[in-house]
Design a protein that fits this description.
- About 15% of the residues have low confidence.
- The protein is an alpha+beta fold.
- Helices cover about 30% and strands about 25% of the residues.
- The strands form four sheets. The chain has a seven-stranded mixed beta sheet with strand order 2-3-1-4-5-7-6, with helices on both faces.
- It has two domains: about 190 residues, 2-Layer Sandwich (Alpha-Beta Plaits); about 50 residues, no CATH class.
- It contains seven helices and 13 strands.
- Strand 8 and strand 9 form a beta hairpin.
Length: about 280
Amino acid sequence: MDIDLSSLGKSAPLPPYRAVLAVDMENFSRTSAHHQQIIGPMILKVLEQAFTRSDMLSVWKNARFPRHNGDGYVMGADPEHLPFLIDPFLEELQRALKEVQPFLAAHDRSLRMRLRASIDVGPLPDLGDGSGIDAMGEAMISTHRLLDSDPVRDELKHTDPDTTLLATIVSRRVYEEVVLGGFTSISSARWKPVHASVPSKDFQAEGYLFVPTPSWGSPPEQPVETPGGGGRSDASGPASDSPDSPTVNQVGHNSGQMFQAGTVHGGVNFGGRDER
């Protein structure tokens, strides 16, 4: 193979700027092989549906360096489409994901398709000649690192799985030039600044989160401290079996006879008379 050394030490032309969109499904590897075969093609279908409803079908059909790896998808587009990749595309993608949930539930009641998405922009080779250098550049790397960062993962983890089906993170550059630049109708108040990091890849960056349909997930049940230092217990279990622990009852109202050793908090009703 001949190697051309004539360009060494000389300036090189800057590749064209491309917007980059990447999506990845939550918990894809935890689903069965059969379900993966159902979900994989469906990722393409919901993306196409969202592009169609956003009046960007031509962007979808003419995607630059598209790649589908089963549980995700990445593509490039001309930077002029960046505002529309945020609005209305992200809202339409949430809507398309919502519509396929009944179909997934018919296969398995616990099966869901929830996506993380990331968007960045920058100079990327786009020759389309099969040389293999297309999409090689910092913008492609940062798009995937943002996608893998903890803030966007946690956004799905801590929200209701039947309500919030999409969480998106964009780079600082996209946020400043598109959102703060006023090129999208989604207010900056709906974006949350985050520190995006992937320690294993030595990646640190400022990112901005957007969730089309936010929700609150069910927080895990927390243990409570029992009175008198008698240990920890959940709210439904006995406080302590220790004989040294003081007896503490929370009593609302009671009619009839009651025997209590220790401290009573609340009202105790004897024969219709409230003793406090």
